[in-house]
């Protein structure tokens, strides 16, 4: 539980900051500082246990199916990072409180900072690779938010995006690598993975996973050639740069190297990837740092360089080198954070970071100058400071390794790197604080507020203490942390100021001298290699890549935007063809069609079908003459109805007939608003032939399916319906019983669809729906209509009543009613007392009531009961509650049909539309 | 007495509420009250059904009391309940948003259409009958046509025509495929059909496969799988804000139908059906995923961005289904609500931009003045980019672990590439929209307009916070889906 | 033989419908959908087999009945088809009113 507290403090504080209505500049930083203060106290309480080798753990399942656990473990390495994150975090918050004293509302800043703090703690504490990855990505997000804090500046936005994309892409590589690693190890628990070292190294996927994981780590730790995002990230407020981009977040990459050191390191492949990358980063960073004009740029490149150094040490892969790496990691965090804060003060007080303008500031801010100089000296590795100790260790390690069998290669290049680092440290210290300013400064400089200097004072004091009394100060921490990296049998750590005159010391002195020369006479030496590595190279390739991606995206999107409905239909048709044919590929096609001489039974389909096809072809050929086409389509519908009659389905025929009438009327009504287009532009013949061919192929497919089923009938459900329709359904018209009883639920849905269509027509065609009185009907017509109406209603009642036993039913009756009701409207008479929505609502309600009525009898929705009833004229009637449902159908159909007709008939487009 | 009929209430209750709304006519306040009450009831009902379904047995409701497979059967398994709850969560918020933003005033019958849409969705999720599925598809489609053109305007009518036409083509195909399957198997009940397909003679297999693939095209069209997603563009771009948010579930209906039919009817238990989709569906799905992220990257408005992400999420879901391992299926089902809710949030936010800013929801036209809106957008972006701690991130990790051993490495690479592209897209959009100086006129927010989106964000976050119980439910869901015998057992 | 003829007729009818669906004006689209739905309805209908004189209305002497389920399905399909036709017409009318003619893809599809 203390672990959970340790991790969640910043998140809680961030949430409070976001949610509480805190105003002003005072409260938010106090609240924010609470988290690290508490966290550090907690760590202090746990420290004795850690020294004794106790590693508290916490294990809560999060998504155990994917082996993602909230598994935390506080080992030495984690403790070191917790200390860095909380410790420097606290200093940065104090510093930031004063740095941001022009901002109105700093809640967003501190909340993001705390979010980052928590994420970074998560990375350190995670004992599950996937959990680690989650926090890893979270650091990228919070870094994005912090870099873009001044988002109204375009440099901030670009820097934020670039950092997010590079580290995010790295995170995805890491994800892939972790998946492979976990797959091989059979678990994502860090301890399990470490235990599976032998399997991992033996697996053929080891090189791949190593590359992927290293890519992720290198992107995060700004290793060459992925380092270009870090200088751009300097658009962030300086406290952020001090915290994220030098002391902690960029260390996440090297942290990962340390974390997985026991599993992945020590192989030739590890050495031959990590060492060159680290070395290149060390040199390129140091080189570029000397060319920067921007103070923060210098620090950014120097950070890159030092990260390279740490990476290089891990890459060497021995236990001693790993310890040296951890040691330098600690030292770098202290002096670099101090340096960034110093740079922040300079920027804050002078208004510029341009080293071309800065100079002689020691006169105005002596205190700050002193602090800056000591910190810079630590960076340069001057004796009595912590940087010196780790540099000595670094030299010592490079002397041990011999890449490509060349003993001198590594030491010489490393030495060169440190000499360059001396040069840029001098630039920072001497160039800014001494000499004289070359131009006017935006503000007249003066000393920074007291509390802005305190964090730097603390850090500089640490540099000195560690540098002079390493054994008392840092040794225990180093031992505890290193044990998690290299195991319990630590190599002897010899932290001492004076080892006697040895090669590292000589190298150190030589580096100092060379650095001095490089700083003093840059022009004389003319930077012998010139701008060997183009500074903007990485950024330019990145930009080009992104621009290319965007272009690709735009062209894809352009195609997508231009995609038309007809092309969509065409694709659909093609895919249907493909789907139909696909299973037949490689199958033997049936050879011969069973052609037989025509028999009597074949005459009706031949004749009827012939007429139907003829009408369809008329419809196709003269589709531009719309009235003709509608009538031709009507003929097709008529023939369809006759087909149903022929093949024993009078019910269907009746419905088809009525629907046909209704549909034709609707089409003709609609035609008034869809006149034949005048312009005679025909579509190209090629297009028409192509469509015809495709349509024929699809039609052929349909015919093939149909024929296959017809010639090979299978037993179906029909027997049950025929058997139970009368005894259980109470109706002899099986089709109707199916509709209102066996599959009454379909009908329930279907009438709702029809009702919806009615509503939609009301909705769509309500604008400009004028009166229908503008075409007064002839008196004779009115009379006819009046006479027809009762007759039609009678027909409807008749059809309705006999539905359950004979062809008919509520649907047909409803449509017939509508047709007769609508006649007056068509004749131009006012007849609109009917409110279609009401009818539909009542229909739907009745259907529901009928259906749920069965619940009272403890049966399911739409269960029916039936019996006998004698009605005059109609005769003996078997009734069924299903008839009530049919009545609901009737009501809904009348309402919906009425809406369809009247809306189409009475629609008048708005004038001028 | 009611408890035994609980199973059909998700269909009947919206129908009743639609009828009542219709009777209320122009009385908007009452309709809204009804919506709130009804929506709450629907949510409670769905949650009850979820706990019920999680007892393990497949619950059935025999409509009309007829013995299956002769009558229509509603079946409630864990997947159905899952979809019901998701729909209820989404619909409730969207309904609330429509009311607070006055969208329901801008045309007739908004509430009625909404209820019937909900009814159609629930029916589709519950039915165990293939033809009845068709009916409910039509119901939910025709309601969605109405919602799409709500508020009118040329773009909506154009989009409506495109959407309706493609879906009508789909419906015709649905009828052909269903009736062909009836002709080949003699049944319409899915479980019964599964049994008969499993026993089909080898000579029938090609026919069955043709029918199965045709049916797949129907569902893929609804799901907006590339290259059948031409309807997405106009539809999601033109739909009124709350409707677009609700439509986040529309593509998922297609995904649901695919999962349902191709685990049950043409699942691995049947020789005719097995291996039908696996050779090519992962690639199409990945193509869809990449297309979606590229569209998001090229988007010029928040809606465009959301449209791309809708397409992409379908790709992800169908990819997870297509790789055909239990773990991947469970991860897919876990991802489904996440992507739905997150996209819906984005549509609601886009609508707020459109309503409150002169420049609309265009991306590169200055920043956003409202801090809450900005915070919500940030959260939505984290959710949609699949960054931790979102459920999208967890689902991705889970799904990728579920890839079969022999899976091509390219799959993993493409999934990650798509993730990167969407991250870039969202970072670009976010930095343009919320960091630039606010510009132009800003209208004041109506009170409460951001609450529904906030609630959706919280729900999506809850998916991740309570990942352990939820994912184990998803696992049980996937197991149940793959054990088709239990569905057939119900028929006896 | 009549099965073959029937199949061919339905296939050709569907082809006519599909051809019209792919035309340029929304009214052609409606016509095409109408023809296509006839074909589809006949297709569904035939899935129960083609029997002459076997109306599925139960009577004392009957024993041979046609499969009653497909007609029921067709009835549902017809109703839904009617609803969709009406809707499509309304949309076509509104589009026509707004853009002046009833071309599909007018804005995007200037070339063909």
Which descriptors would you attach to this protein?
heterotrimer, A: 913 residues, mainly alpha, two-stranded antiparallel sheet, two-stranded antiparallel ribbon, B: mainly alpha
Description:
The complex is a heterotrimer of chains A (913), B (492) and C (112). By secondary structure, chain A is mainly alpha-helical. Helices cover 70% and strands 3% of the residues of chain A. Chain A is built from 37 helices and four strands. In chain A, α3 (76-99) runs antiparallel to α20 (450-468) and α14 (268-291) runs antiparallel to α15. Chain B has a domain at 278-484. Chain C is mostly helical and 112 residues long. Chain C is built from three helices and no strands. Chain C has helices at residues 2-21, 26-46, 69-99. The longest helix of chain C is centred in the last third of the chain and has 31 residues, at 69-99. The mean pLDDT of chain C is 80. Chains A and B meet through β1, α5, α6, α25 and α26 of A and α1, α4, α5, α6 and α8 of B.
Layout of strands and helices, then pairs:
The complex is a heterotrimer of chains A (913), B (492) and C (112).
Chain A: H1 2-19, H2 27-51, E1 57-63, E2 68-73, H3 76-99, H4 107-125, H5 129-147, H6 154-185, H7 190-195, H8 197-202, H9 206-220, H10 229-232, H11 238-247, H12 251-259, H13 261-264, H14 268-291, H15 295-316, H16 319-350, H17 366-380, H18 386-400, H19 409-433, H20 450-468, H21 470-473, H22 475-486, H23 503-520, H24 522-525, H25 537-562, H26 565-581, H27 603-621, H28 626-646, H29 650-671, H30 685-710, H31 718-729, H32 734-742, H33 744-764, H34 779-802, H35 810-826, H36 836-856, E3 866-871, E4 875-880, H37 881-906
Antiparallel strand pairs in A: 1-2, 3-4
Helix pairs in contact in A: 1-2, 1-4, 2-3, 2-4, 3-4, 3-11, 3-16, 3-20, 3-22, 4-5, 5-6, 6-9, 9-12, 9-14, 11-16, 12-15, 14-15, 14-19, 15-16, 15-19, 16-17, 16-18, 16-20, 16-22, 17-19, 17-20, 18-19, 18-20, 18-23, 19-23, 26-30, 27-28, 28-29, 29-35, 29-37, 31-32, 32-33, 33-36, 33-37, 34-35, ...
Chain B: H1 9-24, H2 28-53, E1 59-62, E2 73-76, H3 78-100, H4 110-126, H5 130-148, H6 154-185, H7 190-198, H8 205-223, H9 230-238, H10 241-246, H11 250-264, H12 281-298, H13 302-322, H14 326-356, H15 371-384, H16 391-401, H17 409-435, H18 451-465, H19 467-482, H20 485-489
Antiparallel strand pairs in B: 1-2
Chain C: H1 2-21, H2 26-46, H3 69-99
